C-alpha cells in the first residue's frame, strides 16, 4: 500500500514539475531561468503570510494539503494527509514538511520520526518566477500563456504545457502560487486545486518540530 501512495506522490510531483526544461539548453537559456529564480527568491507568495488549503488527485486517490506560510514563503509548514481504507483497514498517511530558508524537516507524523536536510528550493513547482515570464522565455520552456482568469476572487494567470512525452498540463497561477493544475503526465491523469486562502497570521507553533518527533540528520 505504501508503494501505491508513493506512486501517487510521484505522479503529482511530475505534474507540478512539468515546466522543467528538457533536452540540451543553450547557456543563455539556462542563465535566464537562473536569473528569474534568484530575483524572485524572497517572495514565493503574493501576500506575506496565510493558510492555504488544497486537494490533489491522481490514480483515483486524493491528498488533502494544508500549507501555512510566513515571511513571504521563506517559512512554510505543509501538512499532507492521504486518507485510505482497504477492507476495513486504515492505510492513511500523515506527513509534515517544515521549511525555513534552505532548511527542510520531513516528518512522518504516524511513525513519529523525520529527517533534516538542506536544499535550495525553486520559486514554485514550475521552477521560474511566473510574474517575470516573458514571451521569449515562455517559448523556450514550451509554455503557452492562456491569459488572465479569476479563481477564488484572485486575478490569476492560466498557462499550458505540452510535451512529446505524454504530458499536457494546464496551470492557474496566482503570482507564484499554483491555484489549480489539471492534465496528464506520462499518461497519468493528475489534478490539484486550492480550496481556500486565509489571509491571516498562521500559528507560529506550526513552524516548530513537534516535541514527540525524533529527527535524524541527512547529508
Short description:
Helices cover 16% and strands 46% of the residues.
Structural category is alpha+beta
CATH class: Mainly Beta
Distance between the termini: 28 Å
Strand order of the largest sheet: 9-10-11-12-13-1-2-3-6-7-8-14
Care to count the β-strands?
A: 14
Low-confidence stretches: 1-15, 17-40
Quickly give the CATH architecture.
Answer: Clam
Strand content: over 45%
The residue fraction in helices comes out at: 10-25%
* Fourth-tier CATH superfamily name: Lipoprotein localisation LolA/LolB/LppX
What does this structure look like?
The protein is an alpha+beta fold. The chain has a single domain (2-19, 27-206, 213-217), classed as Lipoprotein localisation LolA/LolB/LppX (outer membrane lipoprotein receptor (LolB), chain A, Clam), CATH 2.50.20.10. It is 16% helix and 46% strand. The chain has three helices and 14 strands. It has helices at residues 2-16, 27-39, 135-140; strands at 50-58, 61-70, 75-82, 85-86, 89-90, 93-100, 103-108, 113-118, 143-151, 154-162, 168-174, 177-185, 188-198, 214-217. The chain has a twelve-stranded mixed sheet with strand order 9-10-11-12-13-1-2-3-6-7-8-14. A two-stranded antiparallel ribbon has the order 4-5. A hairpin with a 4-residue loop joins strand 2 (61-70) and strand 3. The chain starts with a helix and ends with a strand. It comes from Petrimonas mucosa. This is DUF4412 domain-containing protein.
Amino acid at each position: 500500500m505504501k508503494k501505491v501512495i508513493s506512486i501517487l506522490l510521484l505522479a503529482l510531483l511530475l505534474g507540478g514539475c512539468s515546466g522543467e526544461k528538457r533536452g540540451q539548453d543553450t547557456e543563455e537559456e539556462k542563465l535566464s531561468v537562473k536569473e528569474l529564480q534568484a530575483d524572485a527568491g524572497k517572495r514565493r507568495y503574493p501576500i506575506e503570510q496565510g493558510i492555504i488549503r488544497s486537494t490533489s488527485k491522481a490514480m483515483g486517490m486524493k491528498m488533502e494539503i494544508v500549507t501555512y506560510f510566513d515571511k513571504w514563503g521563506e517559512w512554510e509548514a505543509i501538512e499532507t494527509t492521504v486518507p485510505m481504507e482497504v477492507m476495513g483497514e486504515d492505510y492513511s498517511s500523515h506527513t509534515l514538511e517544515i521549511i525555513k530558508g534552505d532548511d527542510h524537516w520531513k516528518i512522518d507524523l504516524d511513525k513519529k520520526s523525520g529527517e533534516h536536510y538542506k536544499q535550495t528550493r525553486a520559486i514554485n513547482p514550475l521552477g521560474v518566477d511566473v510574474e517575470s515570464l516573458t514571451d521569449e522565455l515562455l517559448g523556450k520552456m514550451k509554455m503557452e500563456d492562456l491569459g488572465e482568469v479569476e479563481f477564488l476572487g484572485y486575478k490569476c494567470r492560466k498557462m499550458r504545457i505540452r510535451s512529446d512525452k505524454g504530458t499536457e498540463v494546464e496551470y492557474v497561477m496566482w503570482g507564484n502560487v499554483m491555484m489549480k493544475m489539471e492534465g496528464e503526465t506520462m499518461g497519468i491523469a493528475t489534478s490539484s486545486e486550492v480550496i481556500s486562502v486565509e489571509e491571516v497570521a498562521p500559528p507560529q507553533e506550526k513552524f516548530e518540530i513537534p516535541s514527540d518527533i525524533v529527527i535524524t540528520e541527512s547529508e
